[in-house]
Amino acid sequence: MNEELHASAMITRSKGKLGNTLEVLKKHQRLAVLRRFVSEIARLPDISLINVVVDKTKRGSKEEVFQLAWKAMFQRFENTLDNRNFPGPLNPDERGLVFADNTDGGKLRQYLRAMRRFNPIPFRYGAATRNLPIRMIIEDPNLRDSRLSYFIQVVDCVAYMVKQYIKPCSYMKTKGGNSYFKRLEPVLCKVASRNDPYGLVRI
What is the pTM of this model? Predict the structure, then answer.
């Protein structure tokens, strides 16, 4: 419980990313830890996972990928709050906060503040857009040290499983780890994208 869980490092054994307890485990044992962690996430009663996937081959830079991913996440979070599609009581005045890993916080703050002023959303049919500023997400993103946040570590694990589902490494594919993402189906926010059976927002 005192070790930070970096999902990718559990498989690649990245130097400095594994604590002393995890370092002594064999690779198949670390994979078992991930598998059981995913199963525990899927049993959490009051969570709903929104997943955004950006095809980097179609984008020009890391900055563009980062921006597109976060803006899509903010928008889907906003939509889910606005339509009261999260589990739990249907509060008439739902609001949300964003907690993120302590990386590039200035950019996240800039994106969200800009979307509060101007947020063009295309109509379902045609090329015209309408301005629907973000209003359900309050405050700027709150940054957290992943070592001290179980929630951030959960998100890290889920993101890794999404990647292995779409583009698995050879080890995960051989061991069936590319299917671990499907274990999360009970807690996936499928309304985030009705074009994908698991609600993946693909950009």
Answer: 0.91
Contact 158, 175 (CB under 8 A): no
Q: How confident is the model at residue 15 (pLDDT cuts 50, 70, 90)?
A: low
* Residue 143 burial (CB count, 10 A): 18
User: How would residue 114 be classed by pLDDT, with cut points 50, 70 and 90?
Assistant: very high
Q: How far is CA 72 from the centre of its chain?
A: 11
For tokens 């996430």, what's the residue? 41
Residue 122 in 3-state DSSP? strand
- Domain boundaries of the chain, sorted by first residue: 7-202
Rounded CA-CA distance 50/42 in Å is 13
Burial class (CB in 10 A: 0-12, 13-18, 19+), 150: exposed
At 56, list the tokens: 């980097």
Burial class (CB in 10 A: 0-12, 13-18, 19+), 6: buried
Say whether pLDDT at 16 is over 90.
no
Q: Render pLDDT for 145-180 as a digit per residue (tens, 0 to 9).
A: 998 999 999 999 999 999 999 999 999 999 999 999
CA distance linking residue 108 with residue 66, whole number of Å: 9
Nearest to 75 by CA among 126, 159, 135, 156: 135
Give the chain's end-to-end CA distance (angstroms, integer). 35
| Chain-centre distance for alpha carbon 168 | 17
